[in-house]
Q: What sequence folds into this?
C-alpha cells in the first residue's frame, strides 16, 4: 500500500527544511511512500530548499509542483490529483514528524473500516509562551487542545474520535473518501481575497460525520508544530479570531443556503463594564480605581476583545456574501476546479 504525503508550502523555507527532513527519515522503506511538495507561489528561497532536498534524498520518491493560485486549497487538491497512493497524508510546511509517524498511519489504515486518522499535534514554541496563551488551552471529552495554534493532545490511547478533531496540519484520509466527500474547502486565503475564504477541512469533516465514516486518533501519529513568537501575540490572535468568524459564516451559508442577520455585537466598552461587574471579587468590592492597563492585561478582557474580532469577521463575510459572485462561490458543490473568481 503506497502512502502519499502532500505538503503545500508558501514562503516558509526555514521551517520547510525541518519538515521535509523529518518526513524523509521515517522508519520504513522509502519505497513505501511518496512525497509531493506544492509550492503555492513562494517568493523566498523555497525553490532552492526543495531542489536541495531532492538532491539529498535520491532514493526517495519526491515530486514538486508550482501553482501560484492563492490559498491552501491549491496544494491540497493538486497534491491529491498527482498522488499515486491509496492513503493521502496532508501535512503543513511548519511541522516535523516523529520517526514512526508514517508507519503508525499505515497500521491504522490496515483496518479497511477506517477512513480518516489524526494524532497528537504538540508545540515546538520558539520562545516560552506568555501566560495568557497557555490560558487558551481547553479541555473536553477528547483531551486538551489549543485550536488557535493547531495543538492537541488527546491522550495515550488509540480511540475513535469525531472527524472535526482531525486538523489539516496532520490529516490522513483514504483517497477514495476524499473524492466521495467532495474534497476540501478554501483555506488560508490571503487578506486581499478574504471574501473567498472557506472552512478548510471542516466542511469535509461534517460530511464524514453524516456518512458515519470511522475516524481514529492514535497517539503515535505524532507531529510537532513549529510555533514562532509572532503567533504568540495579541495581534495574531485578533487575526485568527477574525478568520474564524469568516469560516463559521461560510459553514452556515453552505448549510442553509441563505444569509444570516448580522450578529448582535455589543460594544467592547459595554462588555468590559459588564465584566468588571462580575469580577469585583478579583479587583475589590467595586472594581473602582483599577488601573486600565491592569484590566486590559486580564485574560477575560482579552477574550472579550477576541470575541469582538470573531463577530467582525463573521459580519464581514455575511456582508461580502450579498454579492452574487461570492454567494455562488460559497455554495459551489466542490472546488476540484479551483480557480478564484474575479470580483468587480
A:
Amino acid at each position: 500500500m503506497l502512502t502519499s504525503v502532500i505538503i503545500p508550502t508558501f514562503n516558509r523555507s526555514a521551517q520547510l527544511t525541518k519538515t521535509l527532513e523529518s518526513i524523509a527519515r521515517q522508519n520504513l522503506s522509502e519505497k513505501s511512500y511518496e512525497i509531493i511538495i506544492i509550492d503555492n507561489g513562494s517568493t523566498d528561497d523555497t525553490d532552492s530548499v526543495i531542489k536541495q532536498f531532492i538532491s539529498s534524498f535520491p532514493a526517495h520518491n519526491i515530486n514538486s509542483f508550482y501553482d501560484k493560485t492563492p490559498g491552501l486549497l491549491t496544494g491540497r487538491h493538486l497534491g491529491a490529483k498527482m498522488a499515486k497512493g491509496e492513503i493521502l497524508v496532508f501535512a503543513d510546511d511548519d511541522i516535523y514528524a516523529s520517526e514512526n509517524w508514517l508507519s503508525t498511519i499505515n497500521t491504522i489504515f490496515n483496518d479497511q473500516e477506517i477512513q480518516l486518522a489524526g494524532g497528537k499535534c504538540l508545540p515546538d514554541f520558539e520562545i516560552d509562551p506568555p501566560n495568557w496563551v497557555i490560558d487558551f488551552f481547553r479541555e473536553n471529552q477528547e483531551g486538551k487542545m489549543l485550536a488557535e495554534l493547531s495543538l492537541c493532545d488527546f491522550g495515550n490511547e488509540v480511540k475513535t474520535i469525531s472527524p472535526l478533531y482531525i486538523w489539516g496540519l496532520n490529516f490522513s484520509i483514504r483517497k477514495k473518501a476524499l473524492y466521495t466527500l467532495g474534497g476540501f474547502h478554501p483555506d488560508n486565503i490571503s487578506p486581499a481575497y478574504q471574501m473567498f475564504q472557506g472552512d478548510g477541512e471542516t466542511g469535509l469533516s461534517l460530511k464524514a460525520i453524516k456518512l458515519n465514516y470511522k475516524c481514529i486518533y492514535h497517539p503515535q501519529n505524532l507531529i510537532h508544530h513549529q510555533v514562532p513568537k509572532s503567533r504568540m501575540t495579541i495581534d495574531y490572535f485578533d487575526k485568527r479570531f477574525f478568520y474564524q468568524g469568516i469560516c463559521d459564516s461560510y459553514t452556515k451559508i453552505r448549510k442553509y443556503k441563505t444569509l444570516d442577520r448580522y450578529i448582535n455585537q455589543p460594544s467592547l466598552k459595554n462588555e468590559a463594564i459588564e465584566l468588571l461587574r462580575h469580577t469585583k471579587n478579583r479587583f475589590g468590592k467595586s472594581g473602582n480605581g483599577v488601573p486600565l492597563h491592569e484590566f486590559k492585561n486580564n485574560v477575560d478582557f482579552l477574550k472579550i476583545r477576541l470575541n469582538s474580532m470573531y463577530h467582525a469577521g463573521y459580519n464581514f463575510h455575511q456582508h461580502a456574501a450579498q454579492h452574487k459572485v461570492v454567494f455562488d462561490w460559497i455554495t459551489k458543490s466542490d472546488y476540484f476546479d479551483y480557480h478564484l473568481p474575479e470580483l468587480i
The two ends are 47 Å apart (CA to CA). Confidence is low (pLDDT under 50) at residues 279-296.
